[in-house]
């Protein structure tokens, strides 16, 4: 009996402690329904929002990998199925294109005093989303292998190739490089990264006409091909999960890999302490004598549905703003690179922060970028397999994109 | 059965078929004739965590107005079917003029996404279907000869590949054929080639997918033929035996003719199924080397930020047309048999 009393007391204290930690959200009434992707950082944000639930405030959360396929239909309904969609800079476009999210300026003015200026995502002068974390692909490297090979941490892709050559020649590793080159979205993302390094626009100024079939596009593809020579032969099937496994198995020494995987690659799970301890992070490399890292910056943030009632919208903003605070960030420091003021980054955040300060650019937010991305994902494959030259692959990608963009009404 | 009775008898299922099959197909067909409105675009200043830049955005208000006036979009006729991402008539004509030989024409055509998918889909159907029928029949006759005590276990084991969900089955095999997987590394040892990879070469990927397809579908043919074997007339078999027919001759002249209608049925179902091959491509991460018509539809609907509904609708209609063409010979044959039987 005594023990039971004790544990229930402890439980009660825990409950009060957690509500203390997240302070009082101060929401009087409303329904908060959150849709988002499923990974640790978003789970943390959703959990912070859930702590705002009370007798009069309802908080429902649905985190799923398929969030993008649900969101447009769910937010088009009136009242919407979800009052907020937690999005990234690529997935916010369908919502903006269809006008499904509302400006947040009033709420930011009233309740957003704690927000960092750079957390406000402004579209045409209005705050349309509040970002809470940053992500980017950057260098992951095995410090021990690089040391044995006698090469420095590469700062350019040319140095990456040279380092790979040395590592292979010294017999340290058979396939020193890794990459998320799986045909489709991943492969296209690698091209986008590389093309960004040449600091060229993807579209002709002010139009939806593509501009990737040029010498910069060819140079980007040529570099990708050169890198792939030092990768496992199966590179066209490698997504993030596969690359993480390769790293953990000690088969890869250098890769341009997602910052959000830094924690997972270096934790104790799936690998030996020697390997996990030797994996270090650096900024994404530059390419072709360029000055900005050849990668794209990503943010994740929350929006509020336009069709939600004003009461629900306000409740949603206030609940999710709890998730964007330094308290949530510091409690989950290893889960992401947080944007909140007062967040102290851990060692796994190093790569992303170095990439951001290196001047990397964010993933383009043009509404037709997704179409180009998809076209690249299917049309660049033959080049990577070696059955087509780079210019032909890029011409094919442009042709496939133009066809799709016509169907969507972006090109007449 | 009088026509009146037949009508009432068939009405519920006919209604269900009209509502759940025919009407969606009509709606998809209509969708494939339209494309979206021209978007009204404005240049806006976008700022985020990493700075500001001017980008184009859709003027959602103006676009919404267009959409309300004509919800289906702009009428495009059959142009979606004819465009580069589908039948690509213009490109195909250009290739025809360019190429010196038919082989060169085909290889140019293979560079277009739709034809690339069609090539794999047709090969998959043409190779997997007959092998599944032969293999299913062989397993069925073998199991039928087993002593009764062993039959149950044998049937269960033969059915396993069909019980396993396609996606799970292909994932398991995908890991096994990995260069470090049990099959992949054994093959490397066997072939004495440390660089051998089943996933890297398009040819080997196709082979892997064929083998998976056969492995997955053989149990279906097996079950059907096994059931058919139980109905083989014993007296005909016995008289064949008395006439001195060998085991093979019994199969050739008694069992196979008896099971022929079933073979037609299995061929029909298998052709339809194989033409819609999809899960193994996703499960094997084989998009680089093999795509199918179903995969193209999936890819159109999965495009980040911009789903291509009309394109997917056109691909769906083309798939239906191709399945219909493929099944016509079998259907004509069945119809003739049916008339003869009466």
Task: Note down, in words, how this protein is organized.
- The complex is a heterodimer of chains A (412) and B (342).
- Chain A has helices at residues 2-21, 40-50, 67-76, 93-97, 105-111, 143-149, 157-169, 185-197, 215-228, 240-248, 262-266, 273-278, 310-323, 326-331, 350-357, 369-379, 381-385, 390-407; strands spanning 30-36, 57-63, 84-88, 120-123, 126-142, 177-178, 254-258, 279-282, 296-302, 337-338, 361-362.
- Chain A is an alpha/beta fold and 412 residues long.
- In chain A, strands 1, 2, 3, 4, 5, 6, 7, 8, 9, 10 and 11 form an 11-stranded mixed β-sheet that branches.
- In chain A, helix 2 (40-50) links the parallel strand 1 (30-36) and strand 2.
- The longest helix of chain A has 20 residues, at 2-21.
- Chain A is globular.
- Residues 1-23 of chain A have low confidence and may be disordered.
- Chain B has 342 residues and is mainly α.
- Chain B has 15 helices and 4 strands.
- Chain B has helices at 3-32, 60-69, 79-82, 89-98, 102-109, 113-145, 148-163, 166-176, 182-191, 202-229, 234-242, 247-275, 279-283, 293-301, 309-341; strands at 34-35, 41-48, 51-58, 74-75.
- In chain B, strands 1-4 form a two-stranded antiparallel ribbon. Chain B has a two-stranded antiparallel sheet with strand order 2-3.
- In chain B, helix 12 (247-275) packs antiparallel against helix 15.
- The two termini of chain B are 15 Å apart.
- In chain B, 32% of the residues are buried.
- The model of chain B has no long low-confidence stretch (mean pLDDT 89).
- Chains A and B meet through helix 4, strand 4, strand 11, helix 16 and helix 17 of A and strand 2, strand 3 and helix 2 of B.
- Strand 4 (120-123) of chain A pairs antiparallel with strand 2 (41-48) of chain B.
């Amino acid at each position: 009996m005594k023990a039971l009393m004790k544990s229930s007391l402890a439980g009660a204290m825990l409950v009060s402690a957690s509500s203390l930690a997240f302070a009082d959200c101060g929401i009087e009434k409303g329904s908060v329904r959150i849709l988002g992707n499923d990974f640790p950082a978003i789970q943390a944000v959703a959990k912070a929002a859930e702590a705002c639930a009370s007798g009069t405030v309802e908080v429902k959360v649905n985190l799923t990998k398929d969030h993008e396929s649900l969101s447009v239909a769910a937010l088009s309904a009136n009242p919407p199925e979800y009052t907020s969609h937690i999005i990234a800079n690529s997935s916010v476009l369908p919502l903006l294109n269809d006008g499904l999210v509302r400006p947040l300026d009033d709420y930011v003015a009233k309740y957003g005093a704690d927000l960092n200026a750079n957390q406000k995502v402004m579209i045409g002068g209005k705050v349309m989303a509040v970002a809470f974390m940053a992500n980017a692909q950057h260098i992951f490297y095995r410090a021990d292998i690089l040391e044995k090979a006698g090469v420095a941490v590469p700062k350019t892709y040319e140095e990456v190739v040279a380092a790979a050559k040395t590592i292979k020649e010294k017999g340290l590793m058979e396939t020193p490089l890794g990459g998320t080159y799986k045909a489709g979205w991943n492969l296209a993302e690698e091209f986008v990264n590389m093309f960004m390094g040449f600091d060229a626009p993807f579209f002709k100024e002010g139009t939806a006409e593509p501009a990737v079939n040029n010498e910069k596009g060819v140079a980007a593809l040529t570099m990708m091909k050169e890198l792939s020579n030092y990768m496992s032969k199966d590179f066209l099937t490698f997504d993030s999960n596969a690359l993480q496994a390769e790293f953990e198995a000690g088969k890869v020494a250098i890769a341009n890999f997602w910052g959000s995987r830094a924690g997972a690659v270096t934790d104790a799970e799936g690998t030996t302490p020697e390997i996990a301890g030797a994996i270090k992070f650096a900024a994404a490399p530059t390419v072709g004598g360029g000055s900005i890292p050849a990668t794209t910056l990503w943010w994740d943030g929350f929006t509020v549905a336009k069709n939600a009632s004003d009461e629900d919208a306000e409740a949603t903003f206030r609940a999710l703003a709890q998730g964007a605070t330094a308290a949530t960030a510091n409690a989950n420091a290893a889960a992401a690179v947080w944007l909140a003021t007062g967040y102290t980054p851990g060692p796994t955040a190093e790569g992303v922060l170095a990439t951001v300060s290196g001047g990397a650019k964010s993933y383009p937010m043009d509404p037709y970028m997704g179409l180009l991305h998809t076209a690249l994902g299917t049309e660049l494959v033959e080049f990577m397999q070696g059955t087509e030259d780079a210019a032909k692959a890029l011409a094919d990608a442009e042709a496939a994109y133009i066809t799709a963009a016509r169907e969507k009404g972006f090109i007449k | 059965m009088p026509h009146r009775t037949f009508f009432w008898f068939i009405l519920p299922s006919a209604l269900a078929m009209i509502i759940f099959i025919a009407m969606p197909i009509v709606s998809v067909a209509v969708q494939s004739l339209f494309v979206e409105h021209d978007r009204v675009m404005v240049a806006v200043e976008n700022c985020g965590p990493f700075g500001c830049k001017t980008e184009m955005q859709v003027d959602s208000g103006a676009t919404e107005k267009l959409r309300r006036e004509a919800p289906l979009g702009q009428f495009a006729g059959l142009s979606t079917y004819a465009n580069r991402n589908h039948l690509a008539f213009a490109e195909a004509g250009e290739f025809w003029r360019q190429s010196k030989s038919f082989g060169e024409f085909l290889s140019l055509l293979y560079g277009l996404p739709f034809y690339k998918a069609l090539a794999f889909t047709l090969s998959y159907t043409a190779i997997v279907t007959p092998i599944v029928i032969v293999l299913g029949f062989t397993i069925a006759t073998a199991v039928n000869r087993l002593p009764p005590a062993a039959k149950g276990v044998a049937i269960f084991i033969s059915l396993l590949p069909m019980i396993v969900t396609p996606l799970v089955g292909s994932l398991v095999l995908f890991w096994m054929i990995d260069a470090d997987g049990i099959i992949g590394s054994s093959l490397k040892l066997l072939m004495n080639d440390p660089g051998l990879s089943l996933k890297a070469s398009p040819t080997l990927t196709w082979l892997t997918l064929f083998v998976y397809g056969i492995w997955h579908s053989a149990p279906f043919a097996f079950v059907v033929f096994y059931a058919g074997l139980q109905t083989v007339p014993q007296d005909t078999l016995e008289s064949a035996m008395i006439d001195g027919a060998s085991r093979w001759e019994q199969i050739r002249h008694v069992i196979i003719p008896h099971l022929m209608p079933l073979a037609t049925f299995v061929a029909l179902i298998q052709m339809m199924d194989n033409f819609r091959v999809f899960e193994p491509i996703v499960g094997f991460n084989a998009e680089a080397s093999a795509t199918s018509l179903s995969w193209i539809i999936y890819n159109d609907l999965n495009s980040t930020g911009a789903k291509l509904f009309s394109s997917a609708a056109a691909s769906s209609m083309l798939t239906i047309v191709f399945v219909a063409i493929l099944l016509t010979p079998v259907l004509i044959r069945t119809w003739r048999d049916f008339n003869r039987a009466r």
